[in-house]
Amino acid sequence: MKTYQIATIPGDGIGKEVVPAGRQVLEALAAGSSRFNFAFEDFDWGGDYYRRHGVMMPADGLDALRDKDAILFGSAGDPDIPDHITLWGLRLKICQGFDQYANVRPTRILPGIDGPLKRCAPQDLNWVIVRENSEGEYSGVGGRVHQGHPIEAATDVSMMTRVGVERILRFAFKLAQSRPRKQLTVITKSNAQRHAMVMWDEVAVQVASEFPDVKWDKELVDAATARMVNRPATLDTIVATNLHADILSDLAAALAGSLGIAPTGNIDPERRFPSMFEPIHGSAFDIMGKGLANPIGTFWSVVMLLEHLGETDAAQQLMRAIESATATPSLHTRDLGGTATTADVTQAVCRILAAGQ
Ligand code: ATP
Ligand code: MG
């Protein structure tokens, strides 16, 4: 029997509710399996840790995670701590420290969920957005001078390396190739951003030559938002920069019905380090502690975690349980227009798993 070492980092806000729910689901799967088990280690990093220690995570935090098979993360964000501290002090530290350069965000309309696109059949919206996760607009390069003076100036430099662009595009082409439609849309803004974005376009042509069976096209990011709404069925796999894909994937999550159901994997494709899985929503302090958080985004992230571990059967079993929960209106949380609680949905999914369906 294989025992997977899983780190759980609930973080802040509703992360503290949805990560324990994700762990319960993993435990339910392990209870029904003779193949695998999970050993969990929980890390109390985040806003409360910052208030006690002045840092979001300890200096040797990455070492504590290094030998894990995967990380299940909640969210980092606290109304009393500036966003750049919560984000850079925890989530980005892990993403960058472990070179999780591919951020993968599947989006589709699950059974029973009513998206805002009335003209769109559920099968018309089935995307995977690949977000460059290590550089670009969020590389941290820049500076601020003359603070508080009339001549104050600040820059955020979007740094793109050829190596970084090439590896994310290769990852995206490979992913597109593994999906039935074998189709990739490369998104840039190369009409207005004349340097790095033009390099993206050039590298795309070069990498595409390695994947002759993948049909691909280019789209500007502004046009892409309209296309997602007006012609969703023309898209399949999508790759974009750190900032562009951040925005596009929130749009995608909203089009699929709720921010609360959307999952993410922060992947190190070379498997030198553990990858990290998390719902795309944030800490949502407005609904914290009330049992209103939809745990489906975390459960779907657990599906991605299982796929990453190679436990495909368990991943499929959990995805079927999620779909059976979303297809049941009495199991919809408030963000989906229902009255179910986090615990209701979690218990229902665990029951479905225990029944071995
Ligand atoms: P952060 O600053 O950490 O990003 P946030 O306050 O911006 O957090 P988000 O989590 O990004 O909040 O989500 C925006 C809103 O969507 C929340 O205020 C909340 O009402 C709703 N929401 C987000 N996630 C969920 C969820 N899992 N279940 C129900 N509602 C959610
Ligand atoms: Mg937010």
UniProtKB/TrEMBL annotation:
<keyword id="KW-0520">NAD</keyword>
<protein>
    <recommendedName>
        <fullName>D-malate dehydrogenase (decarboxylating)</fullName>
        <ecNumber>1.1.1.83</ecNumber>
    </recommendedName>
</protein>
<dbReference type="InterPro" id="IPR011829">
    <property type="entry name" value="TTC_DH"/>
</dbReference>
<comment type="similarity">
    <text>Belongs to the isocitrate and isopropylmalate dehydrogenases family.</text>
</comment>
<keyword id="KW-0560">Oxidoreductase</keyword>
<dbReference type="InterPro" id="IPR024084">
    <property type="entry name" value="IsoPropMal-DH-like_dom"/>
</dbReference>
<dbReference type="InterPro" id="IPR050501">
    <property type="entry name" value="ICDH/IPMDH"/>
</dbReference>
<dbReference type="InterPro" id="IPR019818">
    <property type="entry name" value="IsoCit/isopropylmalate_DH_CS"/>
</dbReference>
<dbReference type="GO" id="GO:0009027">
    <property type="term" value="F:tartrate dehydrogenase activity"/>
</dbReference>
<keyword id="KW-0479">Metal-binding</keyword>
<keyword id="KW-0464">Manganese</keyword>
<dbReference type="Pfam" id="PF00180">
    <property type="entry name" value="Iso_dh"/>
</dbReference>
<feature type="domain" description="Isopropylmalate dehydrogenase-like">
    <location>
        <begin position="5"/>
        <end position="349"/>
    </location>
</feature>
